[in-house]
Amino acid sequence: MKGSESMGERLRARGACLVVRRRLQPHLDGELDAARAAAVTDHLTRCDRCRRQLESFARIKIALREAAGATMSPKDQVALRRLRRFADGLGDDSAP
User: Fold this and answer.
1) Helix or strand or coil: residue 92?
2) Which of the four pLDDT bands, split at 50, 70 and 90, describes residue 76?
3) Taken in order 72, 74, 77, 83, is the CA torsion positive or negative?
4) Residue 8, SS3?
5) What does pTM read for this prediction?
6) How far is CA 40 from CA 4, 8, 18, 43, in A?
7) Mean pLDDT across the stretch 67-81?
8) 3-class DSSP state for residue 14?
9) 14-42 residue pLDDT tens
10) Which secondary-structure segment (H or E) carries 87?
11) Are 27 and 54 contacting, i.e. CB atoms less than 8 angstroms apart?
12) Residues with Cβ < 8 Å from 22, sequence gap 6 or more?
């Protein structure tokens, strides 16, 4: 963060990152409504950290597709949902 930002601006930015990080995977999967998708996209233009996290999720998604082929079995889909819930928890900075 820039030294010229006030404490309030830094806290608002951190709060925005927390919200966006929870929406990265649904954003990547095209599951957000238009307004939320636009808000995430806007945030990503200004936040390197969140953008890098989205890029990591995208690389994981590509690797999973390549490993499983174009289609996934129902068992693999369940495993992927579990992995997504786990990944969502990693972005939760409020956890101890």
Assistant:
1) coil
2) confident
3) negative
4) helix
5) 0.60
6) 24, 21, 11, 5
7) 74
8) helix
9) 788 999 999 999 999 999 999 999 999 99
10) helix 74-90
11) yes
12) 88, 91, 92
